[in-house]
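Subject: for your reference before the review

Hello V.,

The reviewers asked for a structural picture of the protein, and I figured it would be easier to keep everything in one thread rather than splitting it across files. Below is the amino acid sequence we used in the manuscript, unchanged from the supplementary table.
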Amino acid sequence: MTAKEYSHHTPRWADDALRFALRCCPSRPDCEDAVQEALAALWQCHASVSLDKGKSYLLSAAYRSLMATLRHAKVERKHADGVGASVATVQQPDLRFDLREAIEHSLQALPEVQRAILQLRDVEGYSYREIGETLALSDSQVQVYLFRARVSMRKQLKELGYDES
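And here is what came back from the structure prediction:
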């Protein structure tokens, strides 16, 4: 990819990467930092990345950076609470949630990979192949994780009083 192609395409790709990151993590500053780090990483190797792989590279780099930040924050919290702190449990939500809040709560309860795949497939509209390239997974792994995420979401929403209709 040339410098001109980089400067032409990255603003749009960065918006997509930020929207994706915000679905994986509620902290906007962390998401913005992850996207900035991904843009810097893409710039450093832009000459060796083809234009058709640029967006996938940016999404992958932003995702890896965000997950590293979240893992680091989790370790810091664990040590702040004392060595041997118990694993946080998901609290039962208030049954007065509206559907949007219930969906957001259910999404946050999913494992990181499932949440990312669900976001990329159902919200962003990426193909299994594109998701696999972004998250370094095979197409069949993407399908399995997506199925499990949807089943888990359905189960959680049903527990909150939202039926399948």
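For the response letter, the relevant points are probably these. The longest helix spans residues 51-80. Confidence is low (pLDDT under 50) at residues 83-90.

Happy to draft the paragraph if you're swamped.

O.
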